[in-house]
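Example record

One chain of 699 residues, shown exactly as stored in the release files.
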Amino acid sequence: MIRKATLLAVLSAALLAPMVAATPSTAATSAIRQTVTVSIASISPDVPTSQSDEIKFTGTVRNDTGAPRPAMRVRLRYTPQRVTDRASMDAYARDQNTTTLPANVSSVSAMDIPPLAAGEETRWEFTATPVQLGYRSFGVYPIAIDVAQYGVPIFAQRTFLTYAPPAVPKPPRNKLAVALPVIDQPHRATDGSTFVDDKLSQSVAGRGRLADLARIAQVAPKTVTWFFEPGLLDDLDVMKSGYTVKTKDGEESKPASAAAGAWLTNMRTSLASSPVVAVPYADPDVAGMAHRGLDVLPNRAIQLAWQRAGELLGREVKTNVNWPPSGRLDPDALDLLSVADAKVDRVLLDPGNLPPQPPVTFTPDAASTLDSVNGPVTALVADPQLSALFEPEGATSVLLSTQRFIAETAMISAEQGQTSPRSLVVAPSRRWDPNPALVSALLKTAGRLPWLQMTTLESIKPSKASVPRAGLTYSDADRKDELSGKYLKRVKETWEQAQLTAEITTTKTQSSFDAAVLRLSSSAWRASPRTGRALTKQVSAAVDDRLGKVTITGAGSDRPRKSLAGSNGVVPISVKNSTGTQITLYVDVKSNNRKLLQVKEQKEQLTIGVGQSGTVQVPMNATGNGDATVTVQVRTVDGKAYGEPVRLTIRTTGYTGIASVIVGAALTVMLAAVVTRVLRRRSERKLARAAKNREVSTA
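Predicted structure tokens for this chain:
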């Protein structure tokens, strides 16, 4: 029996061997799938509305196997079952397994492909109707185009077809607002014409990122809301007049950039009638500031944003809407924004920052309300799937993205239990690199779909359709993403020193370093802290140089001592103003040895004109002869120390006491001389009278 069983096993193996060899291995099938591809070029109409509509499908098949391929067949796969929800739609789109394709294979919507040589491509085309596909009602249906050999699919392209016949009642017409960011990273340290790199010149020309944004702006609907970072506009404005770029060997001069000027002009023209919002100047890390004691900077960033964006775009811009870095903020950051002079009353957030509570199985309305220290703030939450379609992770075709967008928005409109219109927001990542053809196609499609109404971001408000949300959810990971405490400490020190350069001026104008310090706090340095530290070093050096333009004269090594002529008197302290503007200050002098030298406190303000020096007379009193030191500190009128303190040596001579002794001795000598003369004259008169009496007696 054992010998018979063994023989049967050997015979079975021999018989089955050819069959196994004829079946492609898993690895071989995988290789074929990677190198024989089918793509869809068009689906027309993209939204059939009648059962008799003829839907035309076109595309190509390409052989990249490196070897000839025998004849193949391109087929339409479908199912009459609608997709039930957006999660199922996403799962279907991500699935790459040919065994899970729609089960039905059309016998008429297909085309035979002749043998293809290596690298050869051929077109295919066929049609279908909704009635052939079994579509009966409004909804989203999964379809696929596969390329098969011997009836076995070797590659497939999945997509969706939305069928929208007239329906009673009509699907709700949801509002859709699109927010597009024009945000970059700072390219200068200070406000001069020196750039740390030349990336902007590439970005505004040819197929650069900013050039693509300008192309989108030219064709975008007027309902799209544009978010500009004013520091970017500032940089481009400088470039159009000529600039220099730091290099390893020094600096390289660059001519005036015509592309930068043209870009600014195109944006001003294209968006003249579109809503425009300015994010805070330099796009600072507001959450990081709130947690590191830089509370005053967000307000200044908003003020400067309104000013510069308005000037450079030649129109009124709004700053009441904030789009935080990564779309996330916490209550501390929200409070800072809400108490700004130009109050922020709207925030555009990532869905993870404000999730529904409890979780919902449908698409929630975008609008909600948050409580801040300064009253309610409207929160607008972007839809993650719709936003991702405007900025796909990898290469994708315009057609597939458009079909997915149609399907997603139709599915939202058809979700069970939703009878009233909802609000939707699209917001790609803030420093995105857009595909102009894709974005323009999606915007055009959104404008013609009967279940969507394009609107501005400002028009979206909380309504009855709004859902309860959990409040601002800000995780430890979000905090870790902020600019570090060590980094922001250095920024804070630079900011405080920069403020002194303004506070010492007579008019107390805004610091000319405000924009520079805000560039240091840009959220761009979250991903590039080394660049941020390099810029901080440059700005700090520039601030120190400005502080050094107010100097105590005669305090150098050439005049190491001042003299006090006597045990008490006054010592002149002079301050020179080389700042280019009138300043007001007072000089604070402290004795370093009060037993030897006492200094009277000074409260007299000193106003010094441009390029001039001012002097204060400081009363001092010495208790002995020799050298004593004092520390001289220039202070603002508010009492803040300005610049580094200076130590002066005071030489006390005691001349006043010696003079008293000398004067006293002189008076004694003089009195003695007078008395002597009086006594002598009296003696002489007595002698004269005695002689005269003798003469009289003799006579």
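Notes: The radius of gyration is 43 Å.
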